[in-house]
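User: Show me a protein chain along with its predicted structure.
Assistant: Here is one chain, sequence first, then structure tokens.
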Amino acid sequence: MADSRDPTEPQQPRDGTKSPAKPFLMIWFRCCSTYGRLPKSADGLKYTGRCPKCRALLEVGVGEGGTSRRMFEAQ
């Protein structure tokens, strides 16, 4: 029997539209040997987040030309 708290498909807005994808970077935080996500700022100039374990702050600027990589490592 299906449990409504554990959906098999992603939740979508009730009006049937798809929610916009929010860009993020996946980061391997070496400090605590764990992964985390850094969402893009509203102004689109940087990605900001914290290590999920030690809460170390990380900011990554968006540079001209950029890269297609989405996974990075941080000290």
